[in-house]
Specification:
286 residues, four-stranded mixed beta sheet, single chain
Length: 286
């Protein structure tokens, strides 16, 4: 039982989304330990687990008690060091490349721009992932269909991404991309990857290996060709997680509860939206 993103885990997860399953999970299931990759200070972990204690008597009794514990924690060197490491997750929307790499990037762009909207996909406002083959390297891409006017608005925006992963009862990843500009808001491009399939595992591993992907934007009234192509990079620590998730998924069991997993990921995505927007407004506002 594990739910991961960049900075945390979901402590308990029910078998279904029913009230009875949630009741059982909160009353009977012990919280999952934190992912060691997060390198959280042990004192912070203990505080969180204390807040999640099954018995009310074992939890902090007042907000002031939690506030005081956080103040003491914030003054510790281990917490300060951990807090600084969070900057490693920051998104870089430009990638410095050599002339040879630039030539390769341009050639891969040309390959992508040759593609039309797939005939087996509905011509609506949908988003889906795909690996485009080439003679050099496979090209990880995210395809989206928008109105022509939306493409003009979004093509010069900041790109930001984040990934959510759930292991049980079925390994599934939510790949979140957002195109952002303070003056006109955010355009969300979420899609799901089934990490129990070889295609999902391969695409996830390639995303982590290459450290970026291309976004192909198509217009509903002009599906014959890509109207605009954007590049998005992935932070190094996210890349490491993506490779780990792809490898871990090979050993996990699958189930027929994919719909439930997607719903849970969607719920977490909705909770994350305001936090992502606050970060983008603080870093890329203007």
């Amino acid at each position: 039982m594990m739910y991961e993103m960049l900075t945390g885990e979901m402590p308990v997860l029910p078998e279904t989304s029913s009230f009875g399953s949630w009741y059982k999970a909160h009353h009977d299931l012990q919280p999952e330990p934190f992912n060691p990759e997060l390198n959280l200070p042990s004192s912070l972990q203990r505080l969180v687990m204390k807040c999640l204690a099954k018995s009310p008597d074992q939890r902090p009794q007042t907000v002031e008690e939690i506030s005081q514990a956080l103040k003491e924690l914030a003054s510790q060197d281990s917490f300060i060091t951990w807090r600084r490491t969070l900057s490693d997750y920051s998104y870089k929307d430009t990638v410095k490349v050599t002339d040879a790499q630039d030539t390769l990037h341009n050639s891969l762009d040309k390959i992508c721009l040759q593609y039309s909207w797939p005939k087996d996909k509905p011509q609506g406002k949908i988003v889906f992932p795909a690996l485009i083959p080439s003679e050099t390297v496979p090209i990880p891409t995210l395809w989206g269909m928008l109105d022509s006017s939306d493409i003009l608005k979004h093509k010069s925006r900041t790109r930001y991404n984040q990934f959510l992963f759930m292991t049980k009862p079925h390994p599934m990843m939510l790949w979140i991309t957002v195109l952002y500009k303070r003056s006109s808001g955010a355009k969300w491009l979420p899609c799901y990857l089934d990490l129990k399939t070889k295609t999902g595992q391969r695409l996830t591993h390639i995303l982590g290996t290459q450290g970026g992907y291309r976004i192909l934007l198509f217009a509903q009234d002009l599906p014959q060709s890509c109207q605009h192509l954007l590049h998005a990079s992935i932070a190094p620590k996210q890349c490491t997680l993506l490779q780990e998730w792809a490898n871990t998924s090979k050993t996990l069991k699958g189930s027929n509860k994919k719909k439930m997993i997607k719903q849970r990921l969607k719920q977490e995505f909705e909770k994350l939206k305001p936090k992502i927007l606050m970060k983008l407004e603080g870093v890329y506002g203007g």
